[in-house]
Design a protein that fits this description.
Layout: H1 23-31, E1 49-55, H2 59-72, E2 77-80, E3 96-97, H3 104-124, E4 135-139, H4 142-157, E5 163-165, H5 167-173, E6 189-193, E7 197-198, H6 201-214, E8 218-220, E9 225-230, E10 236-241, E11 244-253, H7 259-264, E12 273-282, E13 292-295, E14 300-304, E15 310-316, H8 328-341, E16 350-360, E17 367-370, E18 376-380, H9 390-403, H10 416-420, H11 426-430
Parallel strand pairs: 1-2, 1-11, 2-8, 4-13, 11-18
Antiparallel strand pairs: 3-7, 4-6, 5-6, 9-10, 10-11, 12-15, 12-16, 13-14, 14-15, 17-18
Helix pairs in contact: 2-6, 2-9, 3-9
The protein binds flavin-adenine dinucleotide.
């Protein structure tokens, strides 16, 4: 059994005040030889019952637990993670954050997230290293110039910062970029969102975990959900896990690539397909790359981490799989594209490559809302681009669970849209949506 609340009442957790980080705090710990740091979150045994259980300890799941506790006063919550925190796509992505999507619904949900990113480090008292260094999206054909400009104009109408750059302006913004006519896919211009950027993905999971734990949330790792129990009227009652049965009347599933597997436990089929998506990093070099560059046509995207590694995104495999590794030709093609656009990187060695399982919907937009099963809520379908959504998705999932109805921002992203044909088609709009 986990902790019992201050009043001794079962079901109410004692709140362990946040160990706040500050410059003075660091100095104090340094003088004490860094011996008295405490663990950033507890490792409690699962309790027999919670008011709500979140399946999946990625950024979205941990964030949802945090907002449930912070904004909706629900403290008797557990996050169940089958592996380690952030070990799914949260710790495997290329960390690109932007909100310049095309459809109005997407603009609203990604901008909601971007606004939360802008205050996240302060809110969590944890440096998530959000760096608004700008994301440049290249256009390589007349057709793509038209599409990109349409994005820019649509974004501006929605109040989202977005601008169109000529090739020379794009090069001035990103000096390593090649813009001469010798390119197989010449750069004809670029869309720029200056408020966009990157963050440190592990820190996002850890920051949310630490803050949620301080509000009494139980974060339980190495705890795989293996079944979902329902009563005679069909409502959820409990999850079976590798660490025993846990009762809960509200279950939020935020399991990314494994959503179909988890939802099938409640008898639901979810319209997503799961693919391996790959990324790789180079050996570290001195700061040389000032922004993020994406090219959908030749399918490559790149930024430089604070450690100096070039972080390079590749594509998905052409077939569905849960293998968490991808085909070699995918990374090879991405590198061919990168070295053509940025010849200065031709002699760099690659350090690591990995894959994550992304959950892709037909319209490349997420599913975030209630399900036909009472007490069961789903957040999935973010596919290749859900890191940027982390605070927004978490915030909206918490709202939906707490109020048993979607927030106006996530209402259009219902499961029913596939039945009713109300797609939010970012597939045609973005092609790839990192
Ligand atoms: C290579 C790569 C590059 C990417 N690049 C970008 C990018 O640049 N920008 C961007 O916005 N997005 C990007 N993404 C997508 C982004 O990473 C995801 O959309 C996002 O991180 C999803 O977060 P999450 O918390 O929902 O999922 P996850 O972090 O995957 O968390 C889900 C968790 O559920 C757990 N789980 C699964 N089944 C069970 C079970 N039965 N019981 C208990 N736990 C379970 C998993 O172990 C996992 O930890 C990329 C993804 C990959 C793979």
């Amino acid at each position: 059994m986990g902790e019992v609340g201050a009043g001794g009442r079962r079901g109410v957790h004692s709140v362990r005040p946040l160990q706040r980080f500050s410059g003075f705090g660091l100095l104090r710990h340094a003088f004490r030889g860094h011996r008295d740091w405490r663990a950033q979150w507890r490792a409690p045994e699962p309790r027999a019952a919670y008011d709500a259980v979140i399946v999946g300890g990625g950024g979205h799941g941990l964030g949802a637990a945090y907002y449930l506790a912070k904004e909706h006063g629900m403290r008797n919550i557990a996050v169940l993670e089958r592996g380690w925190l952030g070990g799914g796509n949260t710790g495997r992505n290329t960390a690109i954050i932007r909100s310049n999507y095309l459809c109005e619904e997407s603009e609203a949900i990604y901008e909601h997230a971007l606004t939360l990113w802008e205050g996240l480090s302060r809110d969590l008292n944890y440096n998530v290293m959000f760096s608004q260094r700008g994301v440049l999206m290249l256009a390589h054909s007349v057709h793509e110039v038209g599409i990109s400009k349409r994005h820019v104009f649509a974004n501006r109408l929605a109040g989202i910062d977005s601008e169109w750059l000529t090739p020379a302006e794009a090069k001035a913004f990103c000096p390593p970029l090649r813009i001469d006519g010798g390119l197989r896919y010449p750069v004809l211009g670029a869309a720029l969102q200056r408020r966009a950027g990157i963050a440190r993905h592990d820190a996002v999971a850890w920051g949310y975990a630490r803050a949620a734990d301080a509000l009494g949330v139980d974060i339980i790792q190495n705890c795989e959900v293996t079944a979902i129990r329902r009563d005679t009227r069909g409502a959820v009652t409990a999850v079976e896990t590798t660490r025993g049965t846990i009762r809960a009347a509200r279950i939020g599933v935020s399991a990314a690539g494994h959503t179909s597997v988890v939802m099938a436990m409640a008898g639901l089929r979810i319209p997503i397909e799961s693919y391996p998506l790959q990324a790789l990093v180079s050996e570290p070099v001195k700061p040389v790359f000032p922004c993020v560059v994406m090219s959908n046509t030749i399918h490559a995207y790149i930024s430089q981490s604070d450690k100096g590694e070039l972080v390079i995104g590749a594509g998905t495999d052409a077939y569905v799989s849960y293998s968490q590794r991808g085909a070699l030709w995918v990374t090879t093609e991405a590198l061919a594209a990168i070295t053509e656009l940025f010849p200065i990187f031709r002699r760099l060695r690659m350090l690591r490559a990995w894959g994550g399982i992304v959950d892709v919907t037909r319209d490349r937009s997420p599913i975030l809302g209630k399900t036909p099963v009472k007490g069961l809520y789903v957040n999935c379908g973010w596919g290749t681009g859900g890191f940027k959504a982390t605070p927004g998705a978490a915030h909206l999932l918490a709202w939906t669970i707490a109020k048993d109805e979607p927030h106006p921002i996530n209402a259009p992203f219902s499961l029913e849209r596939f039945r009713d044909g109300r797609m939010i088609d970012e597939a045609a709009a973005a092609g790839v949506a990192h």
